[in-house]
Design a protein that fits this description.
This protein is α/β, with parallel strands linked by helices. Helices cover about 45% and strands about 20% of the residues. Helix 4 runs antiparallel to helix 8 and helix 5 packs across helix 7.
Length: about 270
């Protein structure tokens, strides 16, 4: 497995940093709120055995600080630029949580850039319950130290059975999710944009690429019903609910789910 190469491209909305692993068919990873490419942990290296993996820092954090304020639409444009800068006309895409919303926007705004789409733990609209979740993140980002905020988030990120079985993995995930102090303003700006609301339902029917939607049965952040609603609005999308999983469904689903995702992307 190859080491990551870090690339910074100057886009019309500001700098975009991304990491690149491996060789093969292109695969773009879009992470969630406040996330840099490092959040993926070892997943890119595992996937790099089959793919050229591209992992950008979201606008406002990491090497993508500065430039235009974060929006889901702008983040989709940033993502399209990453794929093009890496030398590919299109890519498979995995988007998780807020990254799933960016991935949907990418498929809508730049349909030629997306071959196959996997979205996990994301909903098509801001619901009252999700608004309460965003309030939790507002308190975590503004009133807690970054490490404390990450530790608190772990209570929602993993189901209890997974957390009890793999406590070391959860501890490592907390470290990866911990915001650098200089990333806090960008993360709060992302949060403010989400709090303003979104509703992709009227447009999701225009997504033309094969789509797989994943949800955790016990996800308290984005309920499985919300991801199911998103999948129902995308023509012929497949929906997969992972029993016992919470928000970090790709990790909690283990090798069986990862193999299923790789097969879907490779078909």
């Amino acid at each position: 497995m190859s080491a990551a190469a870090t690339v910074i491209v100057q886009g019309p909305r500001g700098p975009i940093a991304y990491e690149r692993w491996g060789n093969g068919a292109p695969l773009l990873l879009l992470a969630g709120l406040g996330s840099r490419a490092r959040l993926w942990g070892e997943l890119p290296r595992l996937l790099s055995e089959r793919f050229t993996v591209l992992g950008p820092d979201n606008r406002g954090v990491g090497g993508s600080r500065g430039g235009s304020p974060f929006t889901l639409e702008g983040a989709a444009d940033d993502a399209a630029l990453v794929v093009a800068d890496a030398g590919f006309p299109s890519a498979g895409v995995i988007g998780v949580s807020m990254g799933g919303l960016i991935a949907c926007q990418l498929a809508l705004r730049h349909p030629g850039a997306v071959d196959r789409l996997v979205v996990a733990s994301c909903g098509a609209r801001l619901t009252p319950s999700h608004h309460s979740v965003l309030r939790f993140f507002e308190i975590a980002f503004t009133r807690l130290e970054p490490a404390e905020a990450a530790e608190a988030f772990m209570a929602f990120a993993f189901g209890s059975a997974f957390a009890d079985k793999f406590p070391g993995f959860v501890d490592q995930a907390a470290k990866l999710w911990t915001l650098d102090p200089e990333d806090r303003p960008g993360a709060v700006q992302q949060l403010d944009h989400l709090k303003a609301g979104w509703d992709l339902r009227p447009r999701l029917g225009a997504i033309a690429c094969p789509t797989l939607a994943l949800a955790g049965e016990l996800d308290p952040i984005v309920p499985a019903t919300a991801t199911r609603e998103l999948a129902a609005a995308v023509p012929e999308a497949r929906f997969r609910e992972v029993p016992g999983a919470a928000h970090s469904v790709l990790a909690e689903g283990g090798s069986a789910l990862l193999n299923e995702v790789v097969e879907f992307l490779s078909t």
